[in-house]
């Protein structure tokens, strides 16, 4: 019987280490299969690299691809807005129209300057009750823009722009006005006390610009309104030109039932009927 001989344990460990070391030397000499050990040093884990606008991050743990942490968010810029309550008013000749301008802050704190532009100075004006408002960041503020036409304003459209200016920028709100060929003449309160006057109804004469195509089909409408406390009657003498006599009293707080549609250029005189039995309270319209 052949007896088997075993190496001492310490010698076996040495042989195994020697074999492993030989394999490592073979790898260094290029004896290992292709592709083995191709991984470049410095790459950790299996995560892919991520490129951002500011830097490139290496692969590895999932946190390596973060964009700076959640919850930061963009800071909202403080601003404000403006609006008008009557963006397209129709206006008579020689009249006024108030437009409310609302300034609403969205975080902005500071002064805002108001202005209006684009209006023809020969036809109308626009003024604010205040040209500067101060915002506290959250409270809505109101301002009033008063538009005013003249008796001699040109009938037709007017395009205005309300502008608000501040450190937070410029905001705009358009106002498109239509001047209509119509005028209201008011009988004033206590008109009977205004004997021997020519200015009780406004300027004497009240000049109105004739329309380019003034005619019976395209007239200038003249209305009388009674602000006196008693019925009043207006005397006029130009029925062929559309400026006829009333023939009836105008009740307090009402317009004359008589429509006066002036269809030609010329001078139209009128006076208060039934006061001192004469023509002492006079008015005049001149269309030219």
Automatic annotation (TrEMBL):
Keywords: Signal
Protein name: Uncharacterized protein
Species this protein is from: Chondromyces apiculatus DSM 436
Region (Disordered): 36-73
UniProt signal peptide: 1-26
Sequence ranges of Gly residues compositional bias: 57-73
């Amino acid at each position: 019987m052949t007896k088997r001989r075993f190496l001492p344990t310490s010698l076996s460990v040495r042989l195994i280490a020697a074999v492993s070391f030989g394999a490592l030397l073979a790898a260094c000499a290029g004896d290992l299969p292709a592709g083995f050990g191709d991984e470049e040093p410095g790459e950790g884990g299996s995560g892919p690299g991520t490129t951002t606008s500011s830097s490139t991050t290496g692969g590895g743990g999932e946190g390596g691809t973060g964009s700076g942490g959640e919850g930061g968010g963009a800071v909202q810029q403080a601003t404000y807005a403006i609006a008008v309550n009557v963006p397209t008013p129709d206006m008579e000749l020689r009249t006024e129209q108030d437009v409310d301008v609302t300034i609403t802050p969205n975080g902005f704190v500071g002064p805002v300057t108001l202005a209006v532009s684009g209006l023809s100075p020969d036809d109308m004006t626009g003024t604010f009750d205040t040209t500067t408002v101060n915002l506290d960041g959250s409270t809505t503020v109101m301002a009033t823009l008063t538009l005013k036409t003249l008796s001699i304003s040109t009938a037709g459209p007017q395009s205005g722009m309300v502008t608000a200016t501040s450190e937070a920028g410029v905001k705009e709100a358009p106002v498109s006005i239509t001047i209509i060929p119509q005028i209201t003449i008011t009988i004033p309160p206590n008109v009977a006390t205004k004997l021997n006057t020519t200015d009780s109804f406004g300027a004497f004469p009240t000049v109105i610009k004739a329309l380019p195509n003034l005619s019976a089909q395209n007239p200038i409408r003249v209305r009388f309104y009674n602000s006196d406390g008693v019925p009043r009657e207006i005397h006029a003498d130009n029925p062929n030109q559309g400026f006829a006599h009333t023939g009836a009293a105008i009740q307090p707080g009402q317009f004359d039932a008589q429509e006066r549609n002036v269809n030609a250029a010329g001078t139209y005189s009128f006076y208060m009927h039934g006061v001192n039995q004469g023509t002492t309270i006079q008015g005049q319209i001149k269309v030219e």
